[in-house]
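Researcher: We plan to redesign the surface later, but first we want a full-length starting point. Tokens attached.
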């Protein structure tokens, strides 16, 4: 085992341990959520914070539990319960269009392939990865700006482009508990490793992180 592998293992186990104690509960994070339910949450979360989405998620899901339920309603009707989130017309149209594509191209179910998921409106790498990991139980990294910041700082001591981090992230993600690991990372980015004022003193990675060892941080 070389040093980086050792570091990757330690980082993964610390994130898992911290994530267990600091897990932020949202309804879409419950066990055994279906791919559609994860997809719906991600669509609602676009440009809206999680606390707002939490307030309408379950009711909306009760009304529209599947793509076939979405297909039966006009976009204007779907938009109504999304008004509280803002961008309700855009979100309703994306959901409706996705329902049409999923029905005509994928037999009514979301595909378990990243490139196919990205054919749906508004779905980029992040949402596709989230659906694959949390809905289809695939062991893949989920990289948003927060996660990319943590890894850039932890391994390189400075911020790097998401595209430069791919291989590092694949090495760090554990074989088991990868969903919990991904949730832990998302929560760590939200609670500790913030963009402007990272709380390194209280971070589970502080002894391993390259950023805390850079000269500007040691002063
Ligand atoms: S030690 Fe600081 S810079 Fe490193 S991951 Fe934690 S909060 Fe971010």
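Model: Full-length starting sequence:
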């Amino acid at each position: 085992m070389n040093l980086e592998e050792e570091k990757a293992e330690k980082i993964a186990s610390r994130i898992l341990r911290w994530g267990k104690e600091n897990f932020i509960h949202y309804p879409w994070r419950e066990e055994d959520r279906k791919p559609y339910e994860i997809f719906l949450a991600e669509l609602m979360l676009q440009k809206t914070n999680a606390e707002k989405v939490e307030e309408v998620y379950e009711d909306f899901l009760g009304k529209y539990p599947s793509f076939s339920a979405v297909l039966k309603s006009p976009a204007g009707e779907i938009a109504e319960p999304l008004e509280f989130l803002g961008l309700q017309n855009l979100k309703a149209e994306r959901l409706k269009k996705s329902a049409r594509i999923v029905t005509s191209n994928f037999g009514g179910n979301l595909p378990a392939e990243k490139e196919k998921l990205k054919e749906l409106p508004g779905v980029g790498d992040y949402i596709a990865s989230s659906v694959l990991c949390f809905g289809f139980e695939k062991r893949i990294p989920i990289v948003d700006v927060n996660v990319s910041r943590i890894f850039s700082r932890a391994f390189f001591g400075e911020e790097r482009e998401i595209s430069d981090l791919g291989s590092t992230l694949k090495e760090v993600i554990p074989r088991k508990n990868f969903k919990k690991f991904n949730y832990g990372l998302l929560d760590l980015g939200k609670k500790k490793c913030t963009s402007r004022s990272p709380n390194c003193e209280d971070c589970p990675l502080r002894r391993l992180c390259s950023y805390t060892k850079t000269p500007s941080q040691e002063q």
